[in-house]
Design brief:
about 160 residues, alpha+beta, Beta-Lactamase, six-stranded antiparallel β-sheet, two-stranded antiparallel sheet, 4 helices, about 30% helix
Length: about 160
């Protein structure tokens, strides 16, 4: 199954299935705050490795209402997802938004390209109607050499 998903990711990349809005780079105070938040989370992983994961799940520095850090492996494995910890430990390459945009593949692709923004429609926690969400993704390497992607997003800046 893992090989099939990786093959699919490669084919989609070669076919040009990329973020529809890849040239849109958001700006403003909310955006700068998300970038700083993700950069600080990446630094914590560089320093502490997977010991940082528990902090992302429980420490109010990293988890407040709809503001949180998530962490995936570069293979799409979700390691940290505070809104729904039951969703951790799953390969997320097939994750799509309400418009069938392959955001799981986009997260990994953006991380492989040194990081950036992914824009998609997603419901706010507790809602069912999707709204625009922009997520900032960075690749990060833990002290043991393991590579991850880390991200956080903001609603409604598109």
């Amino acid at each position: 199954m893992k090989h099939i998903l990786l093959t699919l990711a490669i084919l989609l990349t070669l076919m040009g299935c990329t973020n529809k809005e890849k040239k849109f780079t958001p700006t403003g105070p909310k955006v700068r705050a998300v970038v700083k938040f993700v950069e600080e989370g990446a630094e914590l992983i560089r320093e502490e490795g997977i010991a940082a994961f528990d902090k992302f799940r429980s420490d109010e520095t990293w988890l407040r209402e709809d503001k949180y850090i998530f962490v995936w492996g570069m293979d799409g494995m979700r390691y940290v997802y505070p809104p729904d910890p039951a969703g951790e430990g799953k390969i997320m390459l097939d994750l799509v938004d309400d418009d069938e945009t392959p955001i799981g593949l986009q997260f990994v692709k953006i991380a492989q390209q040194s990081g950036g923004w992914v824009h998609y429609r997603w419901p706010k926690p507790g809602d069912t109607k999707p709204v625009w969400k922009s997520t900032y993704i960075l690749p990060v390497k833990a002290p043991n050499g393991s590579e991850y992607l880390i991200g956080s997003g903001v609603y409604g800046i598109k």
